[in-house]
Known about the structure:
By secondary structure, the chain is of the alpha+beta class. Helix content is 29%, strand content 29%. It has three domains: 3-70; 99-167; 170-243, D-amino Acid Aminotransferase, Chain A, domain 1 (2-Layer Sandwich), CATH 3.30.470. It has seven helices and twelve strands. α1 (15-28) crosses α7. The longest helix is centred in the C-terminal third of the chain and has 16 residues, at 255-270.
Amino acid sequence: MKKVRWIIQDKNYADKDRLEIIRACDKLEIPCIEITVVPFSDSLPEFPIDDEYENIYYGSTTMMDRIYSDYNQPLGLFYDHKTFSMKNYLSQWGEHMLSSEAEIMTFNEFRNCNHPTEQEFFIRPDADSKAFPGVVLSFGKISEWYDRLINDNVVGLGAKTKILAGPAYHIEKEWRNFIVNGKVVTSSLYRKNFELKKSAKDIPQEMIEFVETRCKEYQPHDVFAMDIAKCSGVHEYYIIECGCMNSVGFYHGDIYKYVASLSEYVGNKVN
Length: 271
């Protein structure tokens, strides 16, 4: 009967979260191994893969990209590039997406649009990518901003990179929810009025119910993170995006519950 083991990126990545994962593994008596990942490298260091254990991974997108391509989507990597995209979320959840009025296009196509220079847009990668974070900029400033990113040699960014571009909204609050099998296992407020504001207490029950209702309609994976927004003056909640749980930031989410629920999920799959 297989057991689970965590493989996590070492102290060069998310140090506080890494230590919390190690502590949780210790409490749960689950083996945990740290590995050193060279940023933007095409290869990974050696780590054990055997018949006794099923590995669960945590680290940077560089690490996950390599595992995804090198190890044929292992069970402990909760990702599928076909489903983790803004285009797919818009197709599946429609009006429940904050960006329901947005379009998917390449950077080049967007820059060639005839929008007023002062019109503001929210733009982000279509894929679950860290090429650049979601940002609100005027149309007139986007080309200048893009040129700076290109000059900085941002990996995964080019004229043909697909992006989401849509209206900018005034978001009052944003939450991150950690989901396993359609249920929220832990949540954190992470932003209020565009400023970082972390809280494990400001978690409205109606927001959790909204998330779990959307999960009954569709899920990009059994295990994933979903970010939710509430806009100023509007009672309704909206999906901002989803993300891979192997590289997620926790804010004030309960890391012990995260480790325990993912370990139980993988353990049930292999036994």
